[in-house]
Design brief:
Number of strands: 21
Shape: globular
CATH class of the domain at 144-358: Alpha Beta
CATH topology of the domain at 144-358: Rossmann fold
Structural class: alpha/beta
Largest sheet: 9 strands, mixed
């Protein structure tokens, strides 16, 4: 009986692996990683903490474990903790560590920051320019448990937006170039259509035939795609949500998408260093940080917690990049610390308020004032009647000290000369002589070699 039972189990196991193989490599990886004791224990611990109102303590314990692992396994963190006066090397509280950024990690050989516990095969090197165009090389974990936690958070984000993970998703195009459509059947999602590098006309036809449940991608690419679909009367009847990330989606663009498509618009906040998607907006407009992935602090310039309702730096700690720990990492972005911990959406997860445009995007005037690209867009696009419906996108190019040019992309057929005249008149009234801001039109919005559209192009960047 035992032999027969073993044979039946073996056949069942083989059938399971065969099904997994047909479903794709990611399906197999999901099954393996979700079966790990560490993953199961962490998920059970999180569920119990949420149920008993002890999430704050659970997060503190998780952060302490990350700090202790970094002290034990990373030479640079070991030296850093040992050098902090009055701070015990073991069980150091998160707030005792200094805030770090890219320059901190560049201050020592990269190998000094790596965890010695993770073998070389379990980490991969990543090179990113970031939206600032500032190159940065780091390592990311390939550990299955880290993968499983990230995947679980992403699928929970999907449930917030759609009530269930989408079966068909469109990823938007980024820049002109190779004209191709590619289906990826073996990904996190059962079916994903890439319209990257497609002309608008081809993309519209492809999306109309594909009938996606969600459109996802960089903010301005998402806006252009949805706008093109609406103009062609080709918005999919299957569409249930639109989601954007990385770039700023301005409020007039959000309203246009919601009105044209009749679906909610959500945002993701991510960081390559911290593991990609780190937080997800809810219907109340806050960004919730999934506790499996990490935690976020909103700090002022001196490193103290920002008063409630005010804006500060996003300083994040990753729980899932065990290859190269990022602890109290300054992402370069700003967000509002909520006035209350409780969110109207009902999620118990920690959150931050409106996400501000990166501090890298500051435009400084002669009198010391600093304008963000979003604020200038508010003055020159949203506040001038009849301008925003004609604008596809824009960027700023620095020409000299306190001398900038705003380059605007308009819809085909827009009365560009009249729109530019009105925008220039408003800019001269508002900013001269503290800031010289020229307004011009452009057919091409500048991108980095990695395909990222950078809103602010400073001096010295060709």
């Amino acid at each position: 009986m035992r032999r027969r039972s073993g044979a039946v189990n073996l056949r069942r196991s083989s059938a399971g692996w065969a099904r997994g193989g047909r479903a794709g490599l990611n399906a197999v990886l999901r099954g393996l990683s979700a079966a790990s004791p560490e993953f199961r224990a962490t998920v059970r611990g999180l569920s119990a903490a949420v149920a008993t109102g002890a999430l704050h303590d659970w997060l503190a314990a998780r952060a302490a474990a990350v700090v202790e692992a970094a002290r034990r396994d990373s030479p640079a963190y070991h030296a850093l903790l040992r050098g902090l006066p009055g701070i015990p090397s073991r069980a150091a509280p998160l707030a005792a560590l200094p805030v770090m950024d890219k320059q901190t990690f560049r201050g020592a050989p990269l190998e000094q920051w790596l965890s010695r516990r993770l073998p070389h095969l379990m980490r991969r090197e990543v090179a990113t320019s970031g939206s600032s165009g500032d190159p940065f090389v780091f390592f990311r974990s390939r550990r299955l448990t880290d993968y499983a936690m990230t995947l679980r958070a992403m699928r929970e984000f999907d449930r917030w937006a759609l009530a269930a993970p989408p079966a068909r998703m469109v990823s938007t195009w980024s820049e002109e170039g190779v004209q191709e459509i590619r289906h990826e059947l073996r990904s996190i999602y059962p079916r994903r259509l890439y319209v990257t590098n497609l002309s608008p006309e081809v993309a519209v036809d492809a999306v109309r035939a594909f009938q996606p449940q969600i459109i996802d991608g960089r903010a301005q690419a998402v806006f252009r795609l949805v706008d093109a679909l609406a103009r062609a009367d080709a918005l999919p009847t299957s569409l249930r949500a639109v989601r954007f990330t990385q770039e700023t989606l301005f409020e007039h663009q959000r309203r246009h998408i919601e009105h044209a498509a009749g679906v909610p618009v959500f945002a993701r906040y991510g960081s390559e260093e911290l593991t990609g998607a780190f937080a997800h907006s809810c219907r109340a407009g806050r960004y919730h940080v999934h506790p499996l992935i990490g935690c976020v602090e909103i700090l002022d310039a001196s490193g103290r917690s920002t008063p409630r309702g005010e804006t500060g730096r996003i300083v994040a700690t990753s729980f899932v990049n065990t290859a190269m720990p990022f602890i109290r990492y300054d992402t370069g972005d700003m967000a509002q610390r909520p006035a209350t911990d409780t969110c109207p959406c009902g999620s118990p997860y920690p959150s931050f308020g409106s996400l501000e445009v990166s501090r890298r995007h500051g435009i400084r005037a002669r009198d010391g004032r600093v304008f963000t690209d979003a604020l200038l867009a508010q003055y020159l696009i949203l506040d001038i009647g009849g301008v925003s419906p004609h604008v596809l996108g824009f960027q700023y190019r620095q020409l000299g000290e306190a001398h900038w040019r705003m380059e605007v992309g308009f819809h085909h057929g827009a009365a560009c000369a009249e729109l530019l005249r009105r925008m220039q008149a408003r800019a001269d009234t508002l900013f001269l002589p503290a800031l010289t801001l020229e307004i011009s039109s452009t057919d091409t919005l500048w991108r980095t070699e990695a395909g990222k559209r950078v809103l602010v192009k400073p001096l010295g960047v060709s």
